[in-house]
Amino acid sequence: MADQNPVQNLCDEATCPICLEYFRDPVMIDCGHNFCQICISQHFGKSEAEASCPQCREIVRPRKMKPNRPLASIVEITKKFSVQTIRGAAEAVGKLCNKHQEPLKLFCEDDVALLCLVCDKSKEHREHKVIPKEEALEKYKDEVSERLKVLRKEREAIVSLKLKEETENQELLAQAETERQKIVAEFKQMHKLLEEQERILLAQLKELEDNIKDIGKKHIAELSKEIESIEGFIKKMENKQEQPANDFLQDVGATLKRCIAGKCETPLAYPSELTEQIKTFSNAITNKFKAYRSEDLEVPTLYLFRNGNYIHSSQLNRYGHVACSDELCAWSYVMGTERFTSGCHSWVMNMRNEPLWAFGVARDHSQDRNETRVWAFGKKSRDGYIAFTSKNVSLGPPFNQWQQVRVFRMPELL
């Protein structure tokens, strides 16, 4: 008792044992104990004969309460004295309770808030789990540390994913550039007949390339934003860790809730359809290039010149499978364009002073091998021009040597 703070003793003597506040209109009962008039009246209730003292349990007469004016004066002096003295002492160790101006020495785990000794005795916290401030400090610092570990791991995972996807994006763009070079190199060997096809393919590649850039940029931007958000939380939590005990515990619950609420979901992986699109595009380009070369036609005597649109035959060998007139089937021939099933089509033939030539269209022979399905036109040396039908029709001797002929295929004619 000799070591007890005299200021605290004075404050205790000026405090009502029932409400634990400074006395308000103090009264003395028969046993000599003092209480707030309203507190003791509520305690006695309607009892008039006798009741027990809430402090010593001695039987007293409820109606024999005497105002204790000297105590009321001491309470007023104590209030002024204690506030100044306690505030000065409390500033060295922490904040005061806003309600009672007492040092905050306890921590309520139910409300996640600092309490003074008076708050601990109040009805508001009487049933709550209250622990010493030091114990709460250690407990919540451990919890904050664990949460920081989780956040740092999340940040590392997303940073790693971002680097990986940046690499993948660059690789896809590099593949797109490779395809660009392939397209340009191939089309340099072809003639003006393929210029329109080149333009279309480059436009498609540009669209795909822009799509890769846009989606990659958006995806990486989302990851950067997520990293920035997590780094913000980490900074706040690190700053929180460095705060004094009272500041740290003052709103640690709200800080943790905000941190948990702001937890990011596992980010989506880089869109796999972009890889599939560039792969599909590459395969489509390869197939188109194969279709433009004569090696798929399996004609041993035909040679495709480097300009891509001129065919020369070293010998006139019979080749083909379609049912046609004997004269037409005696000539070598080669597919000049892809199969088509509808619409109007046209192409230009360069004769280059050839003595013999023919061109036209053929219908699919797989359905009926016995019926002629070839419409063609050609030149038979000096005999003139001829139309190849079920019966060859001579059109007379040539008046001029043709250099070019344009072929039109109209759907209503087939």
Structural write-up:
Helix 5 (about 135-190) packs antiparallel against helix 6 (about 195-240), helix 5 packs parallel to helix 9 and helix 6 (about 195-240) packs antiparallel against helix 9. It is rod-shaped, with a radius of gyration of 50 Å. The protein folds into 3 domains: about 1-90, Zinc/RING finger domain, C3HC4 (zinc finger) (Herpes Virus-1), CATH 3.30.40; about 135-290; about 295-414, Jelly Rolls (Sandwich). A 4-stranded antiparallel beta sheet has the order 12-13-14-15, with no helix packed on it. The chain has 10 helices and 16 strands. The protein is of the alpha+beta class and about 425 residues long. Helices cover about 45% and strands about 15% of the residues.
Keyword list:
single chain, 414 residues, alpha+beta, Herpes Virus-1, Jelly Rolls, 4-stranded antiparallel β-sheet, 10 helices, 45% helix, Znf_B-box, zinc-finger, B30.2/SPRY_sf, coiled coil, metal-binding
Please mark out the parts with pLDDT under 50 across 5 or more consecutive residues, or reply none.
294-310, 312-330
Strand content: 5-15%
Indicate how many domains the architecture comprises.
3
Number of strands: 16
Total helices: the number is 10
Looking at the structure, what is the overall shape? rod-shaped
Order of helices and strands: HEEHEEEHEEHEHHHHHEEHEEEEEE
Rg, rounded, reads 50 Å
The helical percent reads 40-55%
Structural class: alpha+beta
* Spatial sequence of strands, sheet with the most strands: 12-13-14-15
The major beta sheet can be summarized as: 4 strands, antiparallel
Mean pLDDT: 74
N- and C-termini, Cα separation? 120 Å
